[in-house]
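Hello again, I could really use a second opinion on something today. I've been staring at a protein lately and its backbone has me curious. Please have a think about how the structure follows from the sequence. I owe you a coffee for this, so here goes:
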Amino acid sequence: MVKHSPKKIEEIEYVLRKMSGIIKRKGREILNNFPITPPQFVALQWLNEDGDMTIGELSNKMYLAFSTTTDLIDRMEKNQLVERIRDEKDRRVIRIHLLDKGREIILDVLVARRKYLADILSEMGHEQVDQIASAIEVLYNLMDKED
């Protein structure tokens, strides 16, 4: 295991924190063009990535209270982004299912986010972008092991 200078660690943490703030701010700006809130987008992403789940499972993934998630799902259901369906194996269990309209919004938002990133990365050469992509993937994989 390699020990790095506290100053370098501080610099990296600072830049990552600042980048995270920019990404959140830009993400909110992009979402202003769509008929959903940031928490709704997060819920749609989880459903898109992990498939149908209960409100309890979604609450845990989003670190929200069950009642807050229920309200969120109620609004999304009214907007025809998701629907509640009974589990085939256990009829007492209700799962949240992503509808096509919700999936389309996710794709449209991701296209807008990727365009923003592509515009930023267009200021760099291919080699720099490849290095960044590789370093970010390594860092993510190391951090994901800890989770």
